[in-house]
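Reopening this one. Same input as before:
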Amino acid sequence: MQVVLFLFYLAGLFYPALQASESPPTKNLIFEFGLDPAGDAGVVQGRLLLILSRDSTAEPRFQVNDGLRTQQLFGQDVNGWTKANRVRMDGKVLGYPVSSLNDLPAGRYFAQAVVHLYETFHLSTGQEVKLPMDRGEGQQWNRAPGNLYNQPVKIEIKPSGTQRFKITIDQKIPPIPQPEDTRYVKHIRIQSKLLTAFWGRPMFLGAHVLLPEGFDEHPEARYPLAIFHGHFPHDFDGFRTSPPDSNLKPDYSERFKLAGYNIIQQQEAYDFYKIWTGPGFPRVLAIEIQHPTPYYDDSYAVNSASQGPWGDAITYELIPYIENQFRGIGKGWARFTYGGSTGGWEALAVQVFYPDEYNGCYAACPDPIDFRAYCLINLYEDKNAYYYEGPFKKMLRPGVRNYLGQISTTVKDMNQRELVLGSHSRSGDQWDIWEATYSPQGRDGYPERIFDKTTGVINPAVAAYWKENYDLSYILKRDWKKNGAKWKGRIHLYCGDMDNYYLNNAVYLAESFLEATTDPYYDGEVDYGDRAEHCWNGDQTQPNAISRLRYHRYFIPKWTSEIQHRAPAGADLKSWRY
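Same output, byte for byte:
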């Protein structure tokens, strides 16, 4: 009898929970979207995004991020949408950070919709894919010219019941003015034959070229090429010929706890102009490349199954064109690469994949260069990207930290945001571009997933492909006997030991191999910044807030002081030293 009563007692404990899980949601929210009846949107294909915000200080489309203060986002694909019909979004559509519309707290919101437009590409591999073409903004869905949106509208979500909201999308983001040439900065754009052939439509490469002081006065000089890799630059970053704007209102950098950081940035750019044009600074050509793809704000500067031959296009089309136009030396010994984060990975990658075409890389805070430390994931041993797992417990894997180790988001949350922004690796964001660059191409033409975006389960076959083709640390070790002599003295790595994305872990692993090299010894440099966060560049004399602004002034003299030891016999080391 006691056993029976105990079973009834247990049933009473568990029955309410079961009953609650089977009960219908207390809210049923439905949004309906229409295109401007008087507009000229035509037939629309792309990603419909709904942003709900409780913060009125900026438009909702500018308030979605990985931090705790992010606002709410929902997204779904649309295809063949015209102003003659409406699109519906309900509780089944995935959201971030709250997964369902029906789970949103009651209250007042500002609602805004954005349609991130896609184009159809007929790839040389035979597949048809739909992707957002960059339109001069560097793959930013909330700023892309031509994207459709509405001005924010106030809505109120009630605690329960079915509620319908109608939004008319009647605005279009205008074109972005392009920068004009100046005495020192020139802008070039060329159509790439290699990329045009892959994508089945005209594709272009661009660059901002910073000319050395005395370029016109020394027509006999031919110059080395300093190649700065990084994200999409609107103009040449960190260079201005005038002091900080007198009417610039000081801002506050929460990251660096600095007031007036915008003024500091302008002052640093002006200081660099004075250094660049002053006596004693090396006279080289410095370039920042524009190579946005339909997947991201830049291509990662390597050949890729899903993105095409960007590495070859940059190395064999764009760079020779620039050198021909601006009197570059035009030889591999007279080129070097440098950059941070994405640019750090690219700087090392092109040195690894094109050892004869570059003569030195300076890679700061590089994206994961060893996939045993893909941030905090070991792609070859871990089963799940989102969780640390034991026999009875699992724990979410951190995604971002500060210099004190305080965590602001998880890998799962970061990838949920990306999945809401775009299916098929089309978010235009970080984890998706790694996938678009490193993964084999799927049968549908899109990149294969390295891990399931919903569950986090890792695909070991895709991980094996990544290892053989893009794990830079592994490739260095695998190919050292073949290329070690070409890499000797050319590899320089720098990272803060409290990098926000745990990128220092991969640098530790790469350093272990490099320091163990023989025949030849790598003869380069690896250095770490104490408590330094992301984008620390190796300058031990400056705090991170400043060092991240000094890549050009720090690395160009560093390379030119080393090149005399690696230049071939008869190399021109004089015409550009005036």
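So the earlier flakiness isn't reproducible anymore. For the record, The first helix runs from residue 2 to 22.
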